[in-house]
Amino acid sequence: MRPTPQELAGMIDHTLIRPTTTQGEVVRLCQEARDYHFCAACVPPIYVPLAVQHLKDTGVRAGAVVGFPLGYQNPEIKMMETALAIREGAGDIDMVMNIAAMKSGDFSLVKRDIEGVVRTASGATVKVILETCYLTEAEKLKACEILVEAGAHFAKTSTGLAGGGATVGDIRLLRRHLPHWVGVKAAGGIRDCQTAMAMIEAGANRIGTSTGPAIVDSCRAGAGE
Question: Is 185 an active-site residue?
Answer without folding.
Answer: yes
